[in-house]
Protein 1
Amino acid sequence: MSTDATAPAAYTREQQETEELCAGAIRALSGSASIRYRGRRLHDGHRPLPIHASHLQPDAALQDLPSLRGAADSVALRLLHTDAALHKSLCPPEPVARLVFELLEQLRVETLAPEHHAGVIANLRHRFTAWSHAFYDSGLAEGASGLLLYTVFQMCWSRLTARPVLEKTEDFIEATRWSVSSQLSGDLAGLRRHRADQAAFARHALAIAHAVDAMLKEAQTAQDGQQDAAGDAKAQAAFKLLLDFDSDNDNIPEAAPLGDSRAFSDGAGGYKAYSTSYDREEPAGELVRRALLLDYRERMDGRIASLGINTARLARRFTQLLAVPQRDGWSFGEEEGYIDGRRLAQLISSPSERRLFRKEQFLPQADCLVTFLVDCSGSMKTHAESVAVLLDILLRALDQAGITTELLGFTTGAWNGGRVKRDWMRARSPANPGRLNELVHMVFKDGQTSWRRARPDIAALLKADLYREGVDGEAVDWACTRMLARPEQRRILLVVSDGCPMDTATNLANDEFYLAQHLKQVVARREAQGAVEICGLGLGLDLGAYYSRSLATTLPASLNNELFSEIAQLLGGRKK
Amino acid sequence: MQSVRNLFHIDSDLLVPVFTERDTHVPDIDPAYRFNKDVTLAILAGFSHNRRVMVQGLHGTGKSTHIEQVAARLNWPCVRVNLDGHISRLDLVGKDAIVLREQQQVTQFQEGIVPWSLQRPVALIFDEYDAGRPDVMFVIQRILERDGKFTLLDQNRVITPHPHFRLFATSNTVGLGNLNGMYHGTQVLNHAQIDRWNIVATLNYLPQAEETEIVLARVPAMNDEAGRQLASSMVAVASLTRHGYAAGDLACLMSPRTVITWAENCQIFHDPAVAFRLSFLNKCDEAERPMVAEYYQRCFNEELPASQA
């Protein structure tokens, strides 16, 4: 759990909604059903999409709606019209050539947008124009190499779309344009002619890419001789970023970071715990004094009353989403159906009375278990009250809908590794020790206890001392195992968290992404198993990187009926 | 015998028998109707070779109309029966009813639709075949065979089918029940029975160009350059909703019928956006409307105004 103060700006629900809409448009335009945003990048299932064209990279400056739409549409066209294997085999190894080639291929598919998608064409044009302006304004085009690339991009785009180059920069690129046009003119004409044929197009695109590469190298050697590149330094640094294809884009803010963990992949058998002898599982109600619990409960009740949430309506919503009609006895006194023998006498006594029949009755019944797993790590302390209120309302509504619920939490027994770390240091700190902390898994409310009886225990969420560090992967695994022991047919796990797994000692002894990798692996395994549906509720953070079904929200600002109905949809499986 | 090429404008050398006279049961010809090659050939095989044909497809693709229009061009009398969960054996086979004969009330057996059509050169179409209760549908088990005779138990009579009796069915599902949640009320059919249908044709959505032609044929007022462009954008929206449905983003989709309705409503309201809201958007779940608005933007390059409701 990230406890640092320099947390990036919160990822809001609006952003997530926009992303969902864009991903939905990609799915509809391309017909690939498994495309979605995970951690701000487009993924096909669990695999990130190899989209490298520079004008489609997520960029803080290009966050307006038409730009996002343009990028999404471009990706959809790429999925439709590019043979990925062919593209990969043709990709040149030199970074500059590759940069040009990727961009040209993307521009090619963009010209293939069908005429009846007028909006798509407009979005694409907007995105490219906005990107070009951003490129120009950022000063990237100032250096010789930047200017050359910018000019070539503008020329290719203008040729492919049969539109004039951007008016704003037309004079700026004029000289370069003139000097390179003689060398590229043949291939430029070929670009437009062969835009429907990937292989034929690639020949011309590669020719341009290599020509640009050669020109840049030439310029570079000339520049090295002069050593006057001081003014260029900024442009060069930014330029490097353009060429950085295989980075995981960790520098994009606001997403749960994902990275490869060397310790995780190298360690024998993957994830392990150094010692489990200090791990505990405890009823949360016993960790807090009774009187204090009642105090907390009173505080929560006051807060809930002031919110004015319609629990009955929420309960109906849950019934609608999670219950399935099941045969439940008979309904008597019907006008049609099976004859009810006990009423035959009535037929004799009052022949006009026709309600002699009975029908099988189907009532919605929820054979469903919803478990909430709360991340009780240090940074969640600020959210404690809102989360407690939120969960209490959900638990109550689910209880009313006849759905079994559990409320679980996870934290650690100590800061910085506690006794496990001491043991490890005593053993002279062997390498790759695995998880180094005492886990505490807390049960606030179990399946048998009703919401009414568990009321004081739920209030234990307000106890700030319980919040320490968090090892999400093992907690999710624990919750799933618990859920599998329950008889309910459908099991849904909602993980409430505001960050990625964080345990200082473990991270220091292994590496930064060790716990995150494990969480990802556990969720993927449990999802593949299919017995438990796992959703994530991110507080000011997009948990899409870990959970395929996730919702981002900001508490307590959005603690209202709308949030509840969104959570209901998330649990019901409507949200992707 | 007449050639399929002339009758249906389909590229095929097949010849089909055509009745010379039309009677009251022959459906009217819709000159704007466009035939789908595969399905038409399947239906024609049913007519000319006495095969039992079931047409399966999503709603609004024109399954029943397709059979009717083929029959209309063959001058073949046609009877459509809409099945539902309450159609019983008595409705299909016949029942004793009280009739007046020489001023006297007598009970007399009245034939149901199945024996009635069996004895005539009629194409019997079971619409929404998968809505019929499977136990009741066993009534037609025997006539599904080509030369199957039909025994009227109530009368100890065996009916030999007329040589030009034909049987068709249309359904939304393939008899496996309501898998996608879209077709509430459909039944899981007995597969011994599904097996007896000789030909199962699938009619799904057409290529966009063909669908645009259909829309233009149905709404002739749109048949100019601007109208054509509008129609192709409308069909493009419909196609996006279908992809969206397939991807699980939407719970409902636009059928060709919806597109035609939309085009017709455009003529009434003179505004595609308003007509779109009235013909489709309001049928969607509240939560799905932003997604549909996004599709609309892609095809029309206009924002769909938020609902004013």
Note: The mean pLDDT of chain B is 86.
Protein 2
Amino acid sequence: MNKAITTKPRASAAPAREDDSKLQWIDLLRRGFPLIFLVTLIVVFTIMSPRFLSLSNLSSVLDEGTVLLVTALGMTFIIMAGSIDISVGAIVAVSALVAALTVNTLGVLAIIPAVAVGAVCGCVNGLLLAVGKVPSFIATLGTMVVYRGLVLYFTRGAPVSIDDDAFLNTYSGISFGIPNSVMIGLALAAIAWAVINFTVFGREVRAIGGGERVSILTGISVTRVKILMYVLLGGLCGVAGLLQGARTMAATSQLGLGLELDAIAAVVVGGTPLTGGLGSIVGTLLGVLIITLLSSGMNMAGVDPYLQNIIKGVVLIAAVFINIDRKKIGIIK
Amino acid sequence: MTLVATGLNKQFGPTRAASNVSITLRTGTVHAIVGENGAGKSTTLRMLGGVLRPDSGEMTLDGAPYAPNSALDATHKGVALVHQEITINRSLSIAENIFIGDLRLHAWPLLGVLKRKKMAALAQAALDRIGVKISVAANIERLNLGELKCIEIARAISSNPKTLLLDESTAYLDHREVDAVLHVMHQLKSQGITIGFVSHHLSEVLAAADDLTILKDGQFVASSSVANIEANEIHRLMVGRDVLQGTYPTRSPLPSSAAAPALRADKVAVGRELNEISLEVRRGEILGLAGLKGAGAEALFAGIVGDEPLRHGRLQLEGKDYHPSSPRAAWQHGIAHLPGDRGNEGLIVSFSVLDNLVMARPPTVGPFFSMARARAMSNDLIKLIGIRTSSVVADCRSLSGGNMQKVVLGKCLAVGPELLLLNNPTRGVDVGAREEIYRIMRQKATEGLAILLSSEDMPELIGMSDRLMVLRQGVMVREFDSLDNVEEHDIVQYMT
């Protein structure tokens, strides 16, 4: 963000406060917090296990984190608008299944039905919220069960394997020493970043989170924007399902289980408040890295597996506790 | 009992909400406190009721010093206050609502289970005492606002006060509901209870009160027995027209054109509030709409911008049929709307000045939002309207109320509208910013913008409107084609 052009105020705008500089400092610290936190994590884990910073390890960590990243990108839009989606893990499972079922005929192009089905699942969520006026938490709680139920119904609980070489090479191969999935994830992150910052749609999503009634009265088509953002998230979940299926070489009914919580956590740790109106893709990127590194770092550092969940939970709460700007988001619900 | 207050002062920050107010509530009489918005009526009543502590001044009850330090303390001393807002909780029963302040007294010790039968009987007694025909067994969801108000009065009466204070008790009520509340006041007066009440409505004051006190801008103006004062005189004392002379820009002569009006409404009805209105606004004209809250102006605006469907009637823009389907469609048709509730409907205060200014029509280059053009647009608007902000990207919450409102006005003007709907554009705006808003309104009108102005501020309506319509209970009751020699009470008499 470049510095603002200051206009000459006709009278002094606000009385200069002594603690202004101090407040700015705290503000800067808060905004930089996800980055500081990430660096601290890396330092701690490197000390505990020197192998942590090796290229091969980092590359496998990033590969693992890509599914989460792609999902969290879409989740950033939803949370920025003040809504939520907890059906993402189930959409990932549905999309992976669709990819597995079509890969033998379509090969690499199985991405098309996977993304399309993900988008349709998202569209259903969006319609339930924007047209049916069902609160997003309840709507997606319901569709989460339905979507995962669909996968169970069609697979009868049995995994559907993916063994198309072209497909696997494209979506879980490695080019130039970097996993293809990571490149796809970062490309999508760049697009999401541009959409949030440089399109009218991104501004409208943010405006809805900042004040829905104001947005409606100002002529923003809130219904359309809400449906669109859920379609966007659904499509991204389609990509995530595809990548996850390629990684595990199969679609199972357990795919993406619990992903919704990690995605929400990544977005919030990255500095996007659940109350909406604010949001940043860079923050989400850092949040995803924090969550992913935390899991794999504890494994490498030999932390008792039975202790890991406890630490993870505490760290998440601590991160949000420090990170959250209570002045800006007002009421905490 | 007689409640006497002398020389009460109360200051909120730089604002003198009440200065040197003296008032005497005589035993067994009804005393009305009247004045315009911001005259200090509620402040005075709240000081009497112990909710606010006066900065200076004295109060006595039957000659003994009276200095309540809380509303509860005042209640113990025999003075009960009914607040302006309805505070009934509709998920509780009527009896629970009446005894909400001390439910513990009506429960079995330790267990905390309510003694429902006994409580219901006591509640019914309180309702009977104020003379309303409401059964405690009634479904609270079915009661109207007037009946809810009566339950609040029963709640206040259940502490057996000698003095009852009612704050704007009739502000949101319709005529039948008002009559019910007046009946209750009459009933209590006959039981020897002293009543002090605050009101906007002159007719009800004249009907119910024995004495009245007039306040203006926080200052005590006059106190009199109702029998000794004329309605016109009260109006004049409440208003004092000369104060705001020079605030309003001079009207420019209307272009006499045969062109179709910017907006034509034909027998339009919206929601519960607007029953039927027909009007025309021409380009370059400011049409004022006067009326109490709920008289229909707000509903008309909601109908024009498509926020609420028209029940019937027809709208035309520049002679072409216009069917408002959504606020989005309205903005696309060149209708800009400044809502009455700035915090919830007009402005996102956590967003920057720029974000708000360009919200209605963000500038784009190809598929992308253009920050450079948004910045240029914002700077132009800031200069045009005189918004005082440290930068275009400053949060709106750092601005004063007046500057926030200028941002909302800027958002409206940013789209280059053909028709501008203004709902109380200077509510909570200081005098300096007001003048700038008035200046820009007149300037835009002269440039050919059609403006519909709805306001609770009478001097503003008189000073700014080219023509004025008075609405009462959803219909137009009077139209003024020129406001050159119109006084405030000429208008107010049609409003109530």
Note: The two ends of chain A are 30 Å apart (CA to CA).
